[in-house]
Amino acid sequence: MNIIFIYGAVFIASLVLFDSLIRLLQGVFTRKKHLNYRLKLLEKNEDRKAIYESMLRERAIGGDEHEQLSIWFNRIFAQSGLKIDWQRFMLYGVAYLLVSWLVLGLAFSSVLLRGVLCLSSMVALFILAILFVRSKRINLFLRQLPDALDVMTRSLAAGHPLPTSIALVAREMPDPIGSEFGMLSDELTYGTDITDSMRNMVERVGADDLKLVAISMTVQRGTGGNLGEILSNLSDVLRHRQLIKAKIKSLSAEGRMTSWIMLAFPFFLYLMISTLAPGYFDPIWDSGYGNIVIMVGLVIMAVGMLILRKLVNFDF
Which of UniProt's keywords are assigned here (predicted)? Predict the structure, then answer.
């Protein structure tokens, strides 16, 4: 029975590898030809409203709440920038289930326990992957944001109105900020208020620093003032915030590296002892409590890892 799972895992893994290589090559050639994803879609279809609605659907934005798994999950998925691709999700899910089933079979003989662990770990890994992609996308957006504000400042200084300045960012900046400002420009074009449009963009992106831009535009619209000067000052503030974040990360790098080393050390020690003395852990397995020892050890390691990460991660 296991040989069937092995062949299946090899076959699915080959499909996943082939799919990843194809998508990587497509991404390389697409970046050379198109500055951002929205401009790529507009080249195929000039209907801006249709493109805007399709981009919302791809990220599960704007559906009815009863069709969403949860409001929280729908929000983090939208902020990750990932697109709904059920065939790809099914392919990766089946590959993970086959591999995890074979790996867990080395430690657990219960079919029910292995099935529960496979499914629960797949859901947890899926959510963690979305959170990781979301974090990377938000960080990239924040690095691009000061440059986008500079583009808007120069455009406003040249006498262009605000919607034109936003559209200029959408044309001249790469993803993710190019497509996000493009969707903002589409909303303004079709009659959405600037306050509501900025609120929608904050919800789509999930970056706290973007709230400063939204508040600045909203307040300036109500009180007046030089918007170009406001955006220029805000750009300097965001750059200084990023500089402080980089300094804090460099100062805490040793602690973060220590936490990862401490996480990997027990596994390395187990492999080293098993290699040098293959029968060293046999009394634990023969006692029948080996699985319990492993589960307790993993829980303790997870708690210790969370504590260490809390000590070295700072709220900016």
Answer: Cell membrane, Membrane, Transmembrane, Transmembrane helix
Q: How far is 264 from 259, CA to CA, in rounded Å?
A: 9
Provide the Cα torsion 123, 91, 57, 217; round to 10°: 60
Tokens of 23: 């998508």
Position 302: which residue type? Answer: A
264-310 pLDDT, tens digit per residue, is: 888 899 889 988 888 888 888 888 788 788 888 888 888 888 888 77
Cis upstream peptide for 161 (omega within 30°)? no
Cβ atoms of 160 and 229 closer than 8 Å:
no
Exposure string for 136-175, b = 16+ CB within 10 A, e = fewer = ebbeebbebbbbbbbbbbebbeeeeebeebbbbbbbebeb
Q: Which two tokens stand for residue 194?
A: 């600037």
pLDDT at 69: 52
CA distances from 161 to 15, 154, 167, 185, 220 (A): 50, 11, 10, 12, 14
Structure-block tokens of residue 193: 């208020």
Token pair belonging to 20: 């990843």
CB 242 within 8 A of CB 142: yes
H helical segments located in the chain = 2-33, 37-44, 48-58, 71-80, 86-104, 111-157, 162-172, 177-189, 194-205, 209-223, 227-251, 253-276, 282-287, 290-312
CA distance 10 to 35: 37
